[in-house]
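PROTOCOL LOG
Step 1. Enter all chains and additional molecules of the complex.
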Amino acid sequence: MSTGEKKRLNGEAEEDDDVDVDGDGLDAWERTYTDERSWEALQEDESGLLRPIDNKAIYHAQYRRRLRSLSTTAVRIQKGLIRFLYIVVDLSRAASEMDFRPSRMVVIAKHVEAFIREFFDQNPLSQIGLVTIKDGVAHPLTELGGSPESHIKALMGKMECSGDSSLQNALDLVRGYLDQIPSYGHREVLILYSALSTCDPGDITETIQKCKESKIRCSVIGLSAEMFICKHLCQETGGLYSVAMDEAHFKELMLEHAPPPPAIAEFAIANLIKMGFPQRAAEGSISICSCHKEAKVGDGYICPRCKARVCELPTECRICGLTLVSSPHLARSYHHLFPIAPFDEVSPRQNELLHRPVKTCFGCQQSLLNPGNKPGLSVVCPKCKQYFCVDCDIYIHESLHNCPGCESFRHS
Amino acid sequence: MKFQIEDVTVYFPYDNIYPEQYSYMVELKRALDAKGHCLLEMPTGTGKTIALLSLITSYSLSKPQRQVKLIYCTRTVHEMEKTLAELKLLHNYQIKHLGPAAGILAIGLSSRKNLCVNPTVLAAENRDSVDAACRKLTASWVRALAAENPNVPTCEFFENYERAASAAVLPPGVYTLQDLRAYGREKGWCPYFLARHMVQFANVVVYSYQYLLDPKVAGIISKEMQKESVVVFDEAHNIDNVCIEALSVSVRSKTLDGASRNLSRINQEIERFKATDAGRLRAEYNRLVEGLAQRGNLAATDTWLANPALPDDILKEAVPGNIRRAEHFLHVLRRLVQYLRGRLDTENVEKESPISFVASLNTHAGIDQKTLKFCYDRLHSLMLTLEITDTDEFLHIQTICDFATLVGTYSRGFSIIIEPFDERMPHIPDPVLQLSCHDASLAIKPVFDRFQSVVITSGTLSPIDLYPRLLNFHPVVSRSFTMSLTRDCICPMVLTRGSDQLPVSTKFDMRSDPGVARNYGKLLVEMVSVVPDGIVCFFVSYSYMDGIINSWNETGVLKEIMQHKLVFIETQDVVETTLALDNYRRACDCGRGAVFFSVARGKVAEGIDFDRHYGRLVIMFGIPFQYTLSKILIARLEYLRDTFQIKEGDFLTFDALRQAAQCVGRVIRSKADYGMMIFADKRYSRHDKRSKLPGWILSHLRDANLNLSTDMALHIAREFLRKMAQPYDKTGTGGRKTLLSQEDLEKMAENGVQEMLF
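Step 2. Run joint prediction.
Step 3. Record the structure below.
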């Protein structure tokens, strides 16, 4: 084989490799490492051995910090529980940039999906709509609705980007929709903005003023740098403006918008809302669904007022306009109003100083001692003075929303 | 807040103080104690002005036996108003804490144009015609005439002011120009003359550089200031150029034509007076025999032409005989104008020293040095005698006499350069005769001699050891302060290569290289896609900017930029530029984003701030060296080398780098702000160039940011902008305390000052 041929073959082989890399990112054995970056979780101990970093402690510290920052600001603030949120996704040219891997657009889609699920988990009474900006025009992707799946499906089908971005068009469109919703709902817009400029047909400051008048809370998460107009928009309408450093930070910023925000003062008038608690339709019964307009078997809810069938909760009855919810939805929203106080941290030494050190967690009955019989990190509830381990602390505050200590104390 | 610096109690109107402000005050106080001059560099946005004002006013409050008068010189009226507003705040605070005993009188002084309240006078469009319009109403002979004939118009404000005589004083307080006008309107007194009168009594006077440096003005306004004054030159990085300009004159053929017209007009007046009132001319003659026109006896309204030479150099002698008679003087002037016209009519560039110029003038026109020296005063006296009020018409002959007096007085530090056309446009004949001053120390010397402390301060005075040599004085304190920052909010970078790794530079031999223009274009295109809101680009000259924009337009770079941001360009036309700036700001405000192309040493580079979102990035394309083939510059460089032993290269680099620093310093005007600076030229990475940048930029210029290529710069920019967008703590945390409260200062006083100072 001549050298020339060899070279050509080599070239081909290299090309093949390239194609491979483009095709499915990395080789399988590399992939696990890039995702988890397990080498970063190592540290040297005093004897020079490599040990995994105590992730739990770091994670817990982060969590405590977040909890504290939330609880300091949110002492007894009226919260908007019924939220009508539009997520505006900027799909202009800038969204195709590669500074987030593999591209901004993919990262946004991934986290919007997670956010929608988290949002409905925390705000079962609320509704979301999706809008995209592309080629300088804003397109409504989905209408306001309470079903996570339909939103996610709609978004995944539309992921391509081009053209300029226009903040004003998006705001005008969203404002048109949000103006129609009843006064008890909280109007919010969350804009995920990739671009660094906005090409508007008119004066955007007027639009911002109109949004302010309509009491729409506009928040922006930027993906590249701080923009003056976004900052101005958020300041005027009382929203949050943040810029993501990297993917993890972006996720964190997104999730900050999941818990209900404090209600806007002049808007927070106490208001009675008529609600229906529909029954689940009997197994095997056939009825015409009011949302899909076709006959369906079983698996639905019956509006208590007009007896129409709807597919999922919470929603508004298409026939009589009654808000339909289920009682677990209400209960799950309830904890935002009465959060459990953050637990006080007990350093291992403090625990030793007690005359009868607490050895087990009140929640899970696991030992609070680290291997080696040294007391580990623990927390104490300020009300019932029960000790909990770190895992239970997180579980109680993030999922349970009830303190087992206080609850059992009340019954006995 | 209130705190002690050694034996002075300082009243500071804010609750917190930056550490560098504190150390600035300490240094300033030491300079005042030592009764010496000082040179202080502190970056803009750190509150220089208020630190200065509060220390000096507190100093005289603490030491009643040493009343210090503050003379504060600013470059523009806008800065003057800002300073006075700041002083007002401080004054209110001091009154609140000390009672009315702390009352001071502070006034701003500006030209008639800015102070006049008479609507008929204000109708005139420029400064000179406002001055002339005022004189028409207030000159002593006009008023004398009006006393006999009520139909002669006078200014009621001035009449009221005169009638009030010694009762016309300002109560203590701080008066901005606007306050002065309001007060004048209310009382019916002329604010301009009131302010000029009050200057001698005021504790603080704020006015423009020219009032101290230009001998023509200083002789009238500033001659009665006592020695115990503190003179402050703010934003003084260009002070040497101001000094030079104050003593330089240029004569064009237009000037000569105008001068001839003026002369014939004067001739007519003389004829008229001869016919009607010959006694006046004779009286003037007698006065001139006795000695120089005694300006002391003249009414305030009649003084407007002080000698352009410095006070020490004016001879207290009688005017020489050959120009005592009005007609003879006119003849001399005619011959002078004729001679100058002959000199202008030349084919090639000529350079001459004043001595040989005077000698040739003597042989060709028969005017000797002494006669020349007296030209200005003689003209002044003549115009007074002839009762000429429309002085704006006579600017040309004044320029000629100005030239004559200067050339007759000084033999060193000047040269006369005649250029038949502009070097850059050899086809257009535009002869100009320039008397250019090379020695900045000449004009400022009387200021250093007369006043006990002179403070020169600016954001960019680096290298700080060069200024004392240029201005020929010995500062007791010269220090450069850095900015204490809660976060690294400036990000200077030196970009030496394009994305193709070829060096970029505006060096003469590389300038026309299309690769450099392409690389610069590429840099800008990449930057507009990652930087939000406003970007400012500075080029080395108008011609270079025109050239590069043309080539960008042809290669489509401009179109690519326009996809992200709008483009605005500075032109030599002020109105056009103002309009462009206005629209640039609007584009930044509404989120469209914009790029502004500007020129170093231009109006924009000197006076316009691009703070906050108006300037997130400045790109300095090339090093803004002066046009080194300019005859004036060459002459000045020679002089500097021979007299002060400053090497040509050193001076040129110094001058270019201070301009560059001035340009990039436009982006950051306060600590809460942030911005990036790109020095796009391979020569910036050389140590001799870089080290001349001011300390506050150098301290942020990390080694990793030197010698970058476009893609690396892009990466750094992305990271920086993300980092800066995060919320931050304004007071600074842990070891880096950047806002000091009163307790902090008291603690510092206990522990000794030095350890907290950096």
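Step 4. Note key features.
Chain B touches chain A at residues 529-533, 563-565, 588-593, 612-613, 616, 718, 721-727 (CB under 8 Å).
The first strand of chain B starts at residue 2 and ends at 5.
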